Amino acid sequence: MQQLFLTDPLSRLRPAKDSSVALMQAACGAGSQVWWAEPRRLQALDGDIAVLAQPLALEPMAPTPQGWHGPDPWYRQGAPEQRSLTSFQLVWMRRDPPVDDAYTFAAGLLAQAERRGVRVVNRPASLLIWNEKLSALQFSQLMVPTIVSADCASLLAFVRQHRDVVLKPLEGRGGQGVVRASSAMAGLKALLELVTAQQQLPVLAQAFLPGVVEGDKRILLANGEPVGAINRRPQRGDFRSNLAMGGTPEACDLSPRDHTICRALAEPLRRAGLAFVGIDVIGPWLSEINVTSPTGLREIEWLGGVPAADLVMERLMEASAR
Q1: For the residues of 263-317, what is the DSSP string, one character each?
Q2: Which SUPFAM superfamilies match (predicted)?
């Protein structure tokens, strides 16, 4: 069995933190040969979708009390080869956001390969449709009060109604660009004009949850079923708990409410071909659904002692074999 991972350049991946590396190692552990390429190496030729890819040999890594530790370099590359995507049993699209033109074009080529029987994780069409902020809106009954709008008057009314809110850019990631605003703050209207680019771009606003100081939970799901979770606690003086913003990961269990949320999402995710997903939950509320390049595997494995990447790989390979 051969698996292809489409990611950012290998020099940008941090093996002790990156879920893509964890999945590559899980693929090796399951007996697969791992191939790697950047999405820009995809091409269509004579009706086939191909890629200039390289085989990878990964060095072993092990968890320590301080986190994951591995050698440097952590991989060895083979010679690049032009390969049809039909030669891979699984193709992983794991390039980080933003979903820009290059991402969109790569997803379009992957969608063509999918029509030829290639299994892509996650489904290319759904990667483009399931915006990580907007996709949660279809489960609004599981969310705090939320508005998405470019109209400053509507946003201003929402802030005045809920008094304390969080504003999120729709293409943001890792907590970047997320700000907290209150109805009492000076310059609120100017802030709304700024985040909407003078009412040209919609922004998501949600009622602020004070419980976020206790952290928000990242739950990873494979084929709609949870494989593990971590709590991410914000650093002092910040409300953003994203690990990229300095949040601290903690071991945690799934609550009954977490299981309720996962069950509500399971079948819609399966229908959409979203086989590997990370959802964010604050207290009892669903916050986001992350589909492009979900993270958290390393932290779940390290803190919880759960072989999360192996579980993901096992479930996806079983589904692929059917």
Answers
A1: HHHHHHHHHTT--EEEEEEETTEEEEEE-SS---HHHHHHHH---HHHHHHHHHH
A2: Glutathione synthetase ATP-binding domain-like, PreATP-grasp domain
Pairing of strands 179-182, 120-121: unpaired
pLDDT of the residue at 203: 96
Give the residue ranges of the chain where pLDDT is below 50: none
CA end-to-end span of the chain: 14
In a domain, 313, yes or no: no
Three-class DSSP category at 59: coil
Length of the chain: 322
The number of domains in the chain is 3
Q: Is the whole model's pTM more than 0.90, yes or no?
A: yes
Question: Side chain identity at 94, as an amino acid letter?
Answer: R
Please check whether residues 170 and 243 belong to one and the same domain. no
Supply 83's token pair: 């390969």
- Candidates 234, 214, 226; CA nearest to 257 is 226
pLDDT tens string 225-249: 999 999 998 877 677 666 666 678 8
The catalytic site residues sit at 133, 168, 218, 232, 240, 280, 288, 290
In this prediction, residue 71 carries a pLDDT of 85
Tokens of 85: 């995507």
Integer Cα distance of 170 and 149 in angstroms:
10
Please give the residue range of the domain that contains residue 277: 211-306
